Amino acid sequence: MTVFSEALELKIAGLPSRRREAVTAALKRLVPAVVAEDTETLEAFVQLGAGHGDVRARNAARLELLADRVRSQSVAGRELRVELGISRQRMQQLRESGRLLGVQPPLASEYWYPRWQFQGGEVQKVLPRLLAAARERGLSPLGLHLRVTDPGAGIGGTPLAELLEKRPDDVVAIVAGAGEIGS
Amino acid sequence: MSVKLDGFRLEWRSDPLSVVPPVPGRFRFDAPDGSYPVTYSCSDELGCFAEVFGDTKLIEARDGERHVLRLGSRRRLRLLELDDGATLMRLGLDARICVVRPYDQPQAWSSALHRWYARLDGLSYVSRREPSAVNVCLFLDRCADAITVEARGLVRDDLDRLERVIDRYPIATTLLF
């Protein structure tokens, strides 16, 4: 185990500083999760084979990071209810009627509300059109959030979320044509 | 260029050829006025996933219901190569036509090329998310009867294919749980 730890530490020490910090932070999250997992699951995971297991482990790590990203860019449902002074049922009504975007991080069931949909305490005017375009395109609320916050999915490197006021029609058009070959 | 088609696409429906053109055009080389139907393919099966999921970097459970289709052709198709430097230069274009957003300009060019070249079956162009692959926009009013479709299962059916996607691209999926 000592040899394993030393080899791992050496590998991490050789990384560029930003990557070293990212790898260390990821390991700090992953190690407790692995230790807490039951033995049968871990054995099954190991038996999946090196390449296979590696892909699934990377996938799990990416999902964790995506979930973290969603939460860091959003307001928790509980907080928003207090802020707006409305009930859980009213929030659900607003979500279901396409007037509020609530997203569930990957593999989670609680709702989070992306900050970009609010401007000066109000919901952005374009939001209902944007939600309608996403729904028609078969995009989930989470898919919409990830799409409008990714600079590479925006216009000239600017995320769509930052163009809602200046170029609402373009943002809606891009979301309406999303998820296609060449889109 | 005249070529036999060999491409892939992800589709919610099992039939990619019965396209009702949206008005106004929705995707990159759609007819802006919906006057002709088009569909798209990517030369690389995994590249298809990069194209469709590259902006969200997430394949969700609902996406597992999409069909993976392989498109071929019974005859050689006449494609205008927007992935070729000389062709782009002759038209006064550059590779931005393949990646620019929104799609006003690509759609206007699609409409003009469709009108100018009556025997043209479609356009080939560079994939935005997998530049090593070639995408094709097919003018279905001219070549639908020559296109063959091979079903390759639903996205969720082939976990090995999904793992290859996850291995190649920084994409995650909830389908591997």
Task: Characterise the protein shown here.
The complex is a heterodimer of chains A (183) and B (177). By secondary structure, chain A is mainly alpha-helical. Chain A contains nine helices and four strands. In chain A, 26% of the residues are buried. Chain B has a single domain, classed as Diphtheria Toxin, domain 1 (Alpha-Beta Complex). Chain B has six helices and ten strands, in the order βββαβββαααββαβαβ. Chain B has helices at residues 45-53, 85-90, 96-99, 104-116, 140-143, 159-168, and strands at 2-3, 6-11, 38-42, 58-59, 67-73, 77-81, 122-126, 134-139, 147-154, 172-173. A five-stranded mixed sheet of chain B has the order 1-6-7-8-3. In chain B, strands 2-5-9 form a three-stranded antiparallel sheet. In chain B, helix 1 (45-53) crosses helix 6 (159-168). Classes of the chains: A mainly alpha (183), B alpha+beta (177). Chains A and B meet through helix 4, helix 8 and helix 9 of A and strand 3, helix 1, helix 6 and strand 10 of B.
**Multimeric status of the protein:** heterodimer
Number of helices of chain B: 6
Beta-strand percentage of chain A? 5-15%
Q: Largest interface, counted with CB-CB under 8 A?
A: A-B, 32 and 40 residues
What share of the residues of chain B lie within helices? 25-40%
Order of strands in the sheet with the most strands of chain A? Answer: 1-2
Q: Which of globular, elongated, flat, extended, rod-shaped describes the shape of chain B?
A: globular
CATH topology of chain B: Diphtheria Toxin, domain 1
Total helical elements of chain A = 9
**CATH C-level class of chain B:** Alpha Beta
Number of domains of chain A: 2
Mean pLDDT of chain A: 88
**Order of SSEs of chain A, N→C?**
HHHHEHHEEEHHH
Strand content bin of chain B: 25-35%
- Termini of chain A, distance in Å? 49 Å
The CATH level-2 architecture of chain B is identified as Alpha-Beta Complex
